[in-house]
Amino acid sequence: MNKLSRHVTAVGLLLLGWCAPLAGQALAVESAYAASVEYEVKAAFIHNFTKFIDWPSEAFEGNHSPFRIGILGTGPIDKPLLNLNGKKAQKRSLEVSRVPNLYNMSQYHIIFVNPSENGRMRSILSALRGTGILTIGDAPGFAEQCGIINFYLSGGKVRFEININASRREKLLISSKLLRLARIVKSQCD
Amino acid sequence: MMRIDATKNKRYRGLNLLVCSLLLAGFSTGVPESSESLPADLTKLSLEQLMDIEVTSVSKKPEKVAEAAAAVFVINQEDIRRSGATHIPEVLRMVPGVEVARVDSNKWAVSMRGFNNLFARKLLVLIDGRSVYTGLFSGTFWDTQDTVLEDVERIEVIRGPGATVWGANAVNGVINIITKDAGKTQGGLVSAGGGNVEQGFTTMRYGDKLGENAHYRVYGKWFNRDSFEDPNGVDSNDDWTATRGGFRVDWDVSENSELTFQGDVYNGDSNTRRFTVLAPGTSAVVNESQDVKGANIMARWSRKFSDQSDLKVQFYYNEEDREGPVFSQDIDILDLDIQHRFALGDRHDLVWGMNGRVMIDELDNSFALSFNPESDTNYFVNAFVQDQITLIPNRLKFTLGTKLGHNSFSGFEIQPSGRLLWTPNDRHTVWTAVSRAVRTPSRFEDSFTLNFLTVPFNTFQVTGNTELKSENLLAYELGYRVKAAKNFFLDIATFYNFYDDLLTNEPVATPPPGFTTSQVNNLMKGEAWGVEVASTWDVFDFWRIKAAFTWFELDLFLDPASQSPSSTLANGASPQFQVNFRSYLDLPNGWELDTALNYVDELPDLGIEDYVRLDLRLGWHVSQQVELSVTGQNLLEPNHQEFNAIAGGIQPALVPRSVYGKVTLRF
What we know:
- The structure holds 2 protein chains of 2 kinds.
- Chain A has helices spanning 2-28, 37-52, 78-82, 121-128, 164-169, 176-181, and strands spanning 53-54, 67-72, 88-89, 92-98, 110-113, 134-137, 149-154, 157-163, 173-174, 183-185.
- By secondary structure, chain A is of the alpha/beta class.
- Chain A has an 8-stranded mixed sheet, with helices on both faces.
- Chain B has one domain (23-666): Maltoporin, Chain A, CATH 2.40.170.20.
- Chain B has 6 helices and 36 strands.
- In chain B, the strands form 5 sheets. Chain B has a 22-stranded antiparallel barrel. In chain B, strands 1-6-7-4-5 form a 5-stranded mixed sheet. Chain B has a two-stranded antiparallel ribbon with strand order 2-3.
- The interface between A and B is large, with 46 and 53 residues.
């Protein structure tokens, strides 16, 4: 009996030490926290892509003019992407901003299309055809519809696919290293 | 009367615990948000590194720390690199609940939740699934446990009885050292350096593709470390050197199956200054040279049938030889391990496994330490089954498991455990567990005779006992983890342990003439409890702080039949408080400044005073390929003593202040 009561006391102490603060905690914090790591990783990928893709020199106004990334639609990647503002990309400084409308996109070098725009994907991609802009998406079918780079998840890790015909059409030179790491999509784009 | 006082005392401590938890919980709210194990600025990572980051858990099996119903701490590669540590036990200083004491230049006493000793016996240590504690007495010779630290992916430290899945002797914890897949260590790495204690070290590793679906790496490593001094300024003759090499091949045989082959071989000298009984009436402090060498080879095959089902088969051979004047061993271990996991309906995730082991030993008797028989072969068989039951999807899980084992020394053992995991949302985890674990008698305790002291006409000795029972533990654990904010992670674990049949040394009524003999027996009980806190705070994206705090209490009670008061010395062989504080600061132009501050409370029964240790590391990434660093250890005082390994006769040695520089090239 003595032994049993010691065990009960031990468990009691553990519970007593814990239950009060826990009860307060569980109520106080709402589950608003979202797994943002995925989008921070995707934003870091986009930053990295600038090192492995060559834009024609006429895509920039001058040697020191900024590198512009536009965001179409809204999504959880917006914040980490906007945080890239001011960082360096091939000696140029990055400017990240939201794209105001589809008719004013020629200044950008990269346009990220949020999945919120999935409904009008086709019209967005046709508006961007031949502009020399690197299109990056995050939706199944984006690359097949001639978006250039598309993210997907595999084994819990971020992967990307590249439509090489779409990149050729936009006259973007993608390094072989990037192509090696990507899943290649070869659907026809003209 | 004494007992009543002790209980009363505990109640007050319980109250403290409550207040402490309240304070911590209050502190943890309202700090703004980020991730815990990733570098703060992901844009500095390469494409390959980005592709390695797990953003969601693949399946349930590789549990994320936040989802584990146990006290888990993960040391990642960044922690290892920025600690400036050159040896595995030094890295473990950052883990709450773990006691690391450097006994001399080549010996460490490492334990968790009490019972620390030169060869702490209640701890399981694995490198890539290979048990590296010696089968002889289930303690770890840390001097021969090494690999390329840059190739270690992470070290998982599980405090508490992980017995269900991990096997016997994981009574107080498991240290699981996991090296990187060969595919992640492609290219070359050369590092070299030296300093006052680290007299010279160099590492070379090269990795490449092997056909379309396989990768390999090979490495070689060498170091030479200086001896320490004893409290009288006499050289403690504990300098050491080792050369080591190894390989790993990872082959994706098909989409769903993988084969891994790996192996290591090493050869070194670990010197010792030891008090030894040479013959009846003659004893001396002797400078010993001990040759250490060993090799291991492992094959592992894993096959994934579906997201809910997989099979793993692993086989290894491990040889560990040591040769010295007092103690020599030649131990070969063959080990086969099978694990199968499958889902049963929507709610049950079952894992079962079997492990068989053969240990063949040849020992050399000396007058001070002898074994009967001098060589032996022993068999161990274990099976386990565990069912993780989802009570409420994504919210509440109950894990019930048991391990069944048979060994040559104590026969059958059963080790059940029940664990409950509650994740009210993505940020909070509450877990609790009740488990039984055993530490089986070893070959050593079965058969040894140690003559540890001699005076004219009398020699004092301790002998083994073939009738020993397993030491056993009933543990209650309760823990809470919270991602209190995007940039603040807090993990608190508490436990209450009841030990029974702990080992004591009991006088023998009729010893051999000329001897005073005591024999190992199971006549002690114990209670331990503690609080362990770990936290990570990303102050800015260039500054990360990690802190750990440990509060530990142990009370040992001799059985009325016991006549061995010295057996309770373990009471005061563990620090009551430990605090570890680390800061990783990224400076402009690739510079890094890393600080580790460690407080360890006194060990009253070993005569060790409390100490504060300061380690600093200044690193500079000159380019993608070149990294330079200078590390200073124990900077606050010229030297201090961390442990006293009385039982082994090891002469005390003071850990000195040390500085070393290092160059790392990657290509």
